Amino acid sequence: MRLKSKSFKIALILTLSYFALGNLFGYLMADSSFHNNMLFFGFFPYSFIWFASEMEGWDYYSAIFELVTFIVSFFIFYPIGLLFLKKK
Questions:
Q1: Could you tell me what percent of the chain has a pLDDT over 70?
Q2: pTM for this one?
Q3: Pick from 46, 59, 71, 75: most CB atoms within 10 A?
Q4: More confident residue, 72 or 6
Q5: How many other β-carbons are positioned within 10 Å of the β-carbon of residue 18?
């Protein structure tokens, strides 16, 4: 059980950092501050949400997509957290 608790913490840290960086770069690219294709595709879910929000406006769908993306990215990063702990 201790292994799953630590992997949960690692996955949560990775998900929160991906969430923060994705929203930061998504906002900067949607605001036309800079454009970088590698960052756009690296943070695609958040970049897509920001570009759609810039065109149509921020609404409940944007918040729902943010939440769904956060949950999906957590389930993607959870096995990565398990791999980090098994290598130790």
A1: 94
A2: 0.82
A3: 46
A4: 72
A5: 20
